[in-house]
């Protein structure tokens, strides 16, 4: 709102009046001091106090009136930290920055190091600085209540982000939550690891209202999980057989078991069974069996129900060009005396499929892994942060996701990129889920496909434990943006301190010379100053970083010290509606309920039951399998599973 000329003149008059009053009272003080000084030297009582406006205002410009402020300024220059710093800079001609918190003077001469904090003008190159409601970029933090930092997409830079934060430092609240809200503004897809379903319950309903396809692969509460069958992906691309087998073996082995004769033998048997089961056909029609009968659970049931010699007989009857015979032939290179031991070991790795619900959510296929690249989707992979028995399923899910999306982008994308950008938010990356297949290579290549990874860990030590040797270094190196929220361990503190770099700081020292009573020498002192190298932040300063602050690193820029943000600060936070994960009813449960309702309705119409006897028997069997009431060996006949038509593969 513009100020009128009349109001402007009124404001100027008011300020001028205040200035006159200040000068008047200051002059009154000067006259009083001057009178006291004259009286002291003359020996008479002289009072300089006067109410005359002319005398008081005139005293301001007297030698005493002008000299008193100059004396105060000189005192501050000589005896205050900032004043002495200014004098040193003036005398030496060097430029420096004073850090009042740590009481150090950082020189810009750069003799021993040129690091330092990123200034606000420098931030303009990498960030869009604006109120949160005006940004749609990923928000990394803020400078003040109206200046939030939106990370720009810079040429030659990837969008991968690494976040470090000990428990309680705000990884989910200060980064993941704002990231989800901002990604929804841009209409980008999100695949989110979610420990304990907290993120799903907070954002699933809101994302659905924004037009997102929301799915939950819930490995914490299976009855509330949408189903995903990895063998459907293998049917679409047989090249996925080897990575699927490798992921299962890697995530069910200790570090010492990941290589060796037994591991390789079990992997080859698993590859053969994957190719065999995914090609199963109905012996009567010759058509592929429904996807629900071609699953990892079916492989486990085959291993548990059929002796190894009967399984061998199944493979003997396959056509010579069947793809399963290749890996099975490698498996058979082992002596036949130990085939049973190998099959037993593989069965133990797949023992999670003893759980009927685990079997159920991996036999149907309700989650399309290519869909996030075609339209905006939000997939939540809900895991336990205490029990990692389902780790290989989560690892399988994400590894297949990267492979399917990358393949779709290469074949169907625009210039090799997905039509819809996909963000893979790996919250608590090292705590939940298994080890992703060749993740260091994946994170370095997916950027060209329109896939971005946000990797959130508690500490570098934790990441190095999951991805040992130099793997963790490769993962970190492929994240051009890194956000540090706080830590409790020395390894992370040391790495972040090194990442901050070194600066040149001024040092000063003094020395004194003590003389003997009987010597003719008099004592003296000297003051010296110089410069030394110092970390911008030492490891102990990293450990003591205030709870509301964060450190932000962007490749090719100096580090920035910023403030964390809270999800409540986002304009959309008031529109979020809490939804319980236990209220989600997946499609397979809905179909189960519909079948039960039909069965109840038929109990009132016996004649209809007789008419539908044939179909009823099949439906009853399917319902038993769906509800987990069927015998685990039900429907497994090692003789009838031999009808395979290679043309249907």
C-alpha geometry: elongated
Instruction: Round the Cα radius of gyration to an integer and report it.
Output: 37 Å
Q: How many separate helices?
A: 24
Biggest β-sheet strands, sense, barrel:
9 strands, mixed
Structural class of the secondary elements? alpha/beta
Main attributes?
four-stranded antiparallel sheet; nine-stranded mixed sheet; transmembrane helix; 24 helices; 649 residues; alpha/beta; disordered C terminus; 16 strands; TraG/VirD4
Overview of the molecule:
The chain has helices at residues 5-42, 53-59, 63-79, 81-92, 120-123, 171-186, 198-209, 230-236, 241-250, 261-277, 296-305, 308-316, 325-331, 339-349, 356-361, 391-412, 439-445, 460-466, 471-477, 490-500, 539-543, 587-602, 606-611, 613-627; strands at 96-99, 104-107, 127-130, 139-144, 147-151, 161-164, 189-195, 213-218, 377-383, 422-426, 451-457, 481-484, 502-513, 524-535, 549-554, 560-563. It has 649 residues and is α/β, with parallel strands linked by helices. Among the domains are: 7-79, no CATH class; 227-366 and 616-621 and 629-649, no CATH class. The strands form 3 sheets. Strands 8-9-7-10-11-6-12-15-16 form a 9-stranded mixed β-sheet, sandwiched between helices. Strand 15 (549-554) and strand 16 form a beta hairpin. Helix 3 (63-79) packs across helix 4, helix 9 (241-250) crosses helix 10 (261-277) and helix 17 (439-445) packs parallel to helix 19 (471-477). The longest helix has 38 residues, at 5-42. The chain is elongated, with a radius of gyration of 37 Å. The two termini are 73 Å apart. The relative contact order is 0.13. Belongs to the VirD4/TraG family. Residues 587-599, 606-622 have a biased composition (Basic and acidic residues). It is a multi-pass membrane protein. Keywords: Cell membrane, Membrane, Transmembrane, Transmembrane helix.
